[in-house]
Amino acid sequence: MEKGDCPTCGKDMSQHDEWQAYLCVEKFIKVATNPVAYGSVKKIMCPTCKGDMGDHNEKQTTECMNEFLKDVTSEKA
Ligand SMILES: [Zn+2]
Ligand SMILES: [Zn+2]
Fold first, then answer.
1. Residue-wise pLDDT tens for the chain (77 aa)?
2. Ion ligand 1 — residues with CB under 5 Å?
3. What domain of life is recorded for the organism (predicted)?
4. What backbone phi and psi angles, to 5 degrees, belong to 52?
5. Which of 51, 8, 49 has its CA nearest to residue 28?
6. Residue 35's closest CA among 53, 57, 58, 49?
7. CA distance 24 to 12
8. Cβ atoms within 10 A of the Cβ of 3, count?
9. Distance, CA 45 to ligand 1 centroid (Å)?
10. Among 3, 16, 37, 75, who pairs with 20 as Cys (CB 3.0-4.6 Å)?
């Protein structure tokens, strides 16, 4: 997977330590699963499968985010 900007805070994911990556992913999941509550009007793209987060059910969201987190944190090992 191509490393890129954080879907939550817009910074480069390589500048995130493991905890920061976790926090951003947690927040991303909240926004993606409840865009209305967070006032997000634009479509949220999944950083893992590049699909529309609106097309993900809860299980898919969890799976994609686990994959994303694994990907961004494994680089530091
Ligand atoms: Zn971030
Ligand atoms: Zn996905």
1. 456 788 889 999 888 998 999 999 999 888 888 867 767 667 888 989 999 988 899 899 999 999 988 888 776 54
2. 6, 8-9, 24
3. Archaea
4. -75, 125
5. 8
6. 53
7. 12
8. 11
9. 15
10. 16
Letter for the amino acid at 7?
P
pLDDT for 45 equals: 87
pTM: 0.74
Alpha-carbon gap, residue 47 to 34, rounded angstroms:
17
Neighbours of 28 (CB within 10 A): 23
**Closest by alpha carbon to 61, among 37, 25, 36?**
25
Residues in the chain: 77
Q: How far is the CA of 76 from the centre of ligand 2 (A)?
A: 23
Res 20: pLDDT = 93
